Every structure is written in structure tokens, then in C-alpha cells.
Amino acid sequence: QVQLVESGGGSVQPGGSLRLSCAASGSIFSINAMGWYRQAPGKQRELVALVDVPIISGGGTNYADSVKGRFSISRDSAKNTVYLQMNSLKPEDTAVYYCYAIALRVNYWGQGTQVTVSS
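^ that's the sequence the OP posted. Answer follows.
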């Protein structure tokens, strides 16, 4: 079992920045990748960014085209935490952001945190 606890999020004006954090606990050594998905009202949940967790895999990353160049995902292995730095935020980035982890082919989700971009 893996538990995910998110922090960060909130409201920001267009062009602003926010950072999300996700701390993992439990069977952390079984985690293959962690990252973030988001879901806007009336839309399906979509991938935002993923990072490989095992050090041996080199920490490869994957981003949605809509956030490339604006968002950056990183990991702190000592803290079992993944971060999502979001810059140049747009109104279309407004959504509930969910932390995600996959471990031994099982998907785990955080409780979600709201990000609102509005003037």
C-alpha cells in the first residue's frame, strides 16, 4: 500500500506560479513512477507530468504538451516527495490536481488539491 499526501495549490492570477508537493509513505520502495493528473469541471482526468522514481531509472520525465516549458516535475528521494512547479499559469490550467503513483502495477491517488487561475 502507498499513501499520498498533497499540499500546495490555491488561487493565482494568470501568469503566476504555484508549487504542488506530494509526499509518499507506505511501500515506497515498490513505487515505479509518481506524478500529477488534473481534472477540470466536465472534463476527463488527464496526465500533467510523471517522473520515474527508482534512482536506477535515471528519473525520466514525461509532460503533457499543454504544460511543456511551463511546468517542471522533480523528486526528492530522501523525502519521498515529488514536486510540480507551475509557472506562467493560464486560466485553462484551472482544475483539481491529483498526485499519482504506480507501484507493482497498482495505481494510487491523492485526495486532490484545487488550482484556480483567474483574474
